[in-house]
Design a protein that fits this description.
The protein has twelve helices and eleven strands. The chain is of the alpha/beta class. α5 links the parallel β4 and β5. The longest helix is centred in the N-terminal third of the chain and has 30 residues. It starts with a helix and ends with a strand. Bound molecules: ligand C2E and magnesium ion (3 copies). The site of ligand C2E has 24 residues, from β2, α3, α4 and β6. This is Bifunctional diguanylate cyclase/phosphodiesterase.
Length: about 280
């Protein structure tokens, strides 16, 4: 294509590429600095049991607001940290912060944390993760790690070893964004997961799309047979919640139940919802 457009066009392209690389390198530097300055934060979004709306856990979500760049989405800076080879540093910081915050929650609530695909190709991940939990004093049995199909597909052997080691220590593993990756249902058999998170893409369409409803119904039935728990992601209104409940989906997460909020706001949310009964916190 560039040949036909002539030399001038090639110059424009390479200038654009150079611009893009400059932007990425600037972003990388800002992110590295933010990690050192402890400016990358973690927010928490509630996950509820649909039957009675009881909060059962929270997903930790990375948040970064740069003084010059403004809000940068984790969908941008997580892949950047992966590409530039410092996802382990970023992730360790986030997990430490998340686990520290979760120490103050009622004991029966779990913390769900996203592992990036690069981390599932790095044999050090299991050891690092368990070391952070140990240092923080957070019970591994209260941690869930969210991984995606793509991560599992790339280097299945390494990923499987990491997952097995973590599960051996009591950590639970969920398959995130289910239905969107290059799914192979066989993975669900080969891999030991505890939970499947149905991607928001299906949930957001159930109101007026029969196909999405059937897909969710099928996922729920399959998970029941495989003894996996199911979470629907991205529930935004009451009618979606009702439909998912009717489809037999066990858990839900989305703006309807709560947006991701910082550690302090999450604690206030919990004290509003929980009453303490003989020292034990229960859902109000
Ligand atoms: P994810 O793990 O699938 O997280 C769910 C995303 O959906 C979050 O976006 C969340 O804020 C958003 N969400 C939740 N409920 C609703 C809803 O009702 N409606 C809509 N429209 N969106 C909803 P967020 O926080 O921007 O994160 C995007 C992605 O970045 C995450 O997708 C995850 O893949 C990645 N990510 C975030 N934090 C981390 C992290 O600490 N480590 C790693 N490795 N990845 C992270
Ligand atoms: Mg997730
Ligand atoms: Mg997801
Ligand atoms: Mg996602």
């Amino acid at each position: 294509r560039s040949k036909r457009r002539g030399r001038g066009q090639i110059t424009v392209y390479s200038q654009e590429i150079a611009q893009e690389m400059k932007r990425a390198t600037h972003l990388e530097q800002a992110l590295r600095n933010a990690i050192i300055a402890n400016e990358v934060d973690v927010h928490f979004q509630p996950i509820v049991r649909l039957r009675d709306d009881a909060v059962v856990g929270f997903e930790a979500l990375a948040r970064w607001c740069d003084a010059d760049l403004g809000y940068v989405s984790p969908a941008v800076f997580v892949p950047l940290a992966e590409e530039r080879g410092f996802i382990d540093t970023l992730s360790d910081t986030l997990l430490r912060k998340a686990a520290e915050a979760a120490l103050s929650w009622p004991k029966e609530l779990f913390l769900s944390f996203n592992l990036s695909s690069a981390q599932l190709m790095d044999p050090k991940t299991a050891f690092n993760t368990l070391a952070i939990l140990n240092r923080t004093g957070f019970d591994p049995r209260r941690l869930e790690l969210e991984i995606t199909e793509t991560a599992v597909m790339t280097d299945a052997d390494t990923a499987q070893k990491i997952v097995a080691e973590l599960r051996g220590a009591g950590v639970r593993v969920s398959l995130d964004d289910f239905g969107t990756g290059q799914s192979s249902l066989g993975r669900l058999r080969d891999f030991t997961f505890d939970k499947v998170k149905i991607d928001r893409a299906f949930v957001s369409r159930i109101a007026n799309d029969k196909a999405s409803e059937h897909i969710i119904k099928a996922i729920v039935a399959m998970c029941e047979g495989l003894d996996l728990e199911v979470v629907a992601e991205g529930i935004e209104d009451f009618s979606e919640a009702l439909k998912l409940k009717a489809l037999g989906c066990g858990m839900g997460q989305g703006y309807f139940y709560g947006k991701p909020t910082d550690a302090g706001t999450t604690m206030r949310f919990l004290s509003d919802r929980y009453v303490s009964v003989e020292g034990r916190a229960v859902n109000a």
